Amino acid sequence: MWAVVIDVSLPVGSDPQVLRMELLEHAVPVVRALEGLVDATWTISEDRTRGTGFYRFVSQEGAHARAASVGIGDAAPGGATVTNVEVLEVLVDITG
Prior knowledge:
Layout (H helix, E strand, L loop, with lengths): L1 E8 L6 H17 L4 E8 L5 E8 L2 H9 L6 E2 L3 E10 L7
């Protein structure tokens, strides 16, 4: 299994509820349609200045396709800006 981690910077004063709605309306439908997607999670830092999207894929190819669709400096939902995109191999997965 493979993962893509996408980090974003958020505008000062970002409201988590507004961000959640932006993700649900704009990002979730697109991400759900990605081939080989296992799951996706979006998080926000306690100080509301950074966010991270974590996507797991069945294949390395799927992970690289997602990573290639996003670039550093790209706009993201909620006025966020992409600051990092990484493809990682999942070594251990614990679900419960």
